[in-house]
Design brief:
This protein is an alpha+beta fold and 474 residues long. Helices cover 25% and strands 22% of the residues. It has nine helices and 19 strands.
């Protein structure tokens, strides 16, 4: 008896998933826990493993199909059982024509000389009026090419005609990979000067089938989440040029785009920046990082210090730990901090639960664990929801400062800059002096619907103060 590969529950808020890519095909032998298929949800990407060893008997859900939680993705014939014929094989067998029975011989026609005497003529009835023959039905329109929903969206974005592609997916379906393979060559084929005008071709006869149009590039469709307006139609159009590379958006990229556009359209963003002297933190980190690594098994970076100071400041300034709910502002009881993590497929924000209850070491361990599992796609959807404030650290490569877009439905996000030694003026023995200090810019973006400038600046000043005091238990 075959074993069903079902879409598991990927989180309390996830009800369905989209089949992004199959890693196996029908007839392949698989081992237990071997990844079979990549599934994308609006929260997380996941690889679904094989529940048992055996042979892939049938792939039920094609790439691009939306499957509910508990729905069947594929079936596995376990070891010791012979896999049943796949639907395609069964269809091919049923398509074979059955042998025809020998036709019965036609009766011999007797010569006129051997025919019997002619029968007496019967009276002929008056002819009835004949109804006009019904008009011929118009030919049915050609069937649209079979393609997954993901492939259709990718083709629309890349300007590729699906009718010109040959599908390599299950049952001959056109997949996203087929579109991506054709998108760049199609754009390159259109390079060069415009061809000379051609003479008008004679109209095709009704009996001649129309030829499928060649894959021709056109401008990508409007960006995911882009506002649909006359201005967007007028200024948002771009025609593919020579040397351009058309890269269709991944499902995750589309979700990020939609979320960012929604946030900018919903929340009036305001930003403020603080320059933080991290001399005390740098000294403490240099003294303790080796012992910290040995004791806790994770590196001691600057991020846990910033998060620790942030959650303490959020406790003192709850206006930043809030959400706008219709005509009310909800200040959250719990502090759940989202940590932005860059992965191969895009940005994700796993959440450190009850961050205000954790020590510096606890925060460092939680951040390291979530970041590692985010990059290997081992997060659950629940670990990506419920954040009340976000901290983002884009990295060290020349990052001075910048204002991040608020992660809705939160009202604030703190962006870290690079730690750089700079000359600053300090008072030494009662005199001004130029000294070299390790400085970092912290940039706060906040929702002006919920937070005014004074409380936002007070919150950021408190984060700065806690970092400069460097009173951390490491």
């Amino acid at each position: 008896m075959s074993i069903a590969v079902e879409l598991p529950a990927l989180g309390e808020s996830v009800l369905e998933g989209t089949v992004a890519r199959w890693l196996v095909k029908e007839g392949d032998r698989v081992e237990q826990d071997q990844p079979l298929v990549e599934v994308t949800t609006d929260k997380v990407d996941a690889e679904i493993p094989a529940p048992a060893a055996g042979v892939i008997e049938a792939i039920v859900a094609a790439e691009g199909d939306v499957v509910p939680v508990g729905g069947v993705l594929a079936r596995i014939a376990p070891d010791g059982e012979r896999p049943a014929a796949s639907p395609r094989d069964a269809g091919a067998a049923s398509a074979q024509p059955a042998p025809r029975a020998p036709a019965a011989p036609a009766p011999a026609v007797r010569p006129a000389a051997e025919a019997g005497p002619a029968a007496a003529p019967r009276p002929v009835a008056p002819a009835r009026p004949v109804a006009p023959a019904p008009a011929a039905r118009p030919a049915a329109p050609p069937e649209p090419p079979r393609a997954t929903p993901v492939a259709r969206r990718a083709a629309e974005a890349a300007g590729v005609e699906l009718a010109a592609l040959e599908g390599t997916g299950v049952g001959g379906r056109i997949t996203k990979a087929d579109v991506e393979r054709s998108a760049v060559p199609a754009a390159e084929a259109a390079r060069g000067a415009a061809p000379a005008p051609r003479a008008a071709a004679p109209p095709a006869r009704a009996s001649e089938p129309s030829q499928a149009r060649a894959a021709t590039p056109r401008a990508p469709a409007a960006r995911a989440g882009a506002p649909h307006s006359a201005a967007a139609e007028r200024f948002g159009h771009y025609a593919v040029q020579e040397g351009d590379r058309v890269v269709p958006m991944s499902p995750l990229r589309k979700l990020v785009a939609e979320h960012m556009v929604y946030s900018k359209q919903t929340a009036p963003h305001v930003g403020t920046v603080a320059e933080v002297d991290l001399g005390g933190v740098v000294r403490l980190r240099d003294e303790r990082k080796r012992a910290f690594q040995e004791q806790h098994g994770v590196p001691l970076t600057f991020l846990p210090f910033v998060v620790h100071a942030t959650v303490r400041a959020l406790r003192e300034h709850p206006a930043l730990n809030a959400s706008v709910l219709e005509d009310a502002i909800v200040e959250k009881r719990d502090v759940h901090v989202g940590i932005a993590v860059e992965t191969e497929k895009g940005l994700v924000v796993p959440v450190v639960r009850h961050a205000d209850r954790l020590s510096l070491a606890g925060l460092a361990a939680a951040i390291e664990d979530l970041s590692a599992r985010a990059r290997t796609k081992r997060l659950s959807a629940d670990e990506l929801t419920g954040g009340t404030f976000t901290v983002t650290n884009p990295g060290r490569e020349g990052n001075l400062y910048g204002f991040a877009i608020i992660n809705q439905p939160q009202v604030g996000i703190l962006r870290m800059g690079e730690v750089v030694k700079r000359p600053v003026v300090r008072t030494v023995d009662g005199e001004d002096a130029i000294v070299i200090r390790p400085l970092m810019y912290l940039a706060l973006s906040y929702d002006h619907r919920a937070v005014d400038g004074a409380p936002a600046n007070a919150f950021l000043h408190r984060v700065k103060q806690l970092l400069e005091e460097a009173d951390f238990d490491v």
